[in-house]
Fold:
Amino acid sequence: MSLTSGGILAWRREKGVLKVLLVHPGGPFFIKKDEGAWSIPKGAGEEGEGMLTAARREFAEELGMEITGDFIALAPVKQKGGKVVYAWAVETNSDVRAFKSNTFSMEWPPRSGKMQEFPEVDMAEWFAVDEAKKKINAAQVAFIDELAGKTGGI
Structure:
């Protein structure tokens, strides 16, 4: 497992309310988890790949759409398991209702010898800041707080 990831905190305003885009991990381990399980779209970099490039690639892989704009670097955070996440905020109006995630294979059920495909992301949704802070991985709340500070908050 990589000890670093690059991610994108996409944001927009709806009727003056700051909203952020979060994704829910797919697969059997997260199917019944909600609060604290969501994340910004993120993933490990490939050999020789910069973190912003990795973040943009992961966004495209997890949502099936490219992300462009003026990227604002956010302070990295260290998650409970030790992974350091580097993130960039970018304003976008992306419609994620029809997102298309890449998939991964794993043996499921465990020790069954059966390989199954699962989406890397099974849900993507825009959340107002207060709700997003309940849904997101606890360490990543710092990204939302920093974004709110840089954009004038709610």
User: Anything to note?
Assistant: Strands lie at 4-14, 17-25, 42-43, 72-78, 84-91, 103-107, 115-119, 121-128.
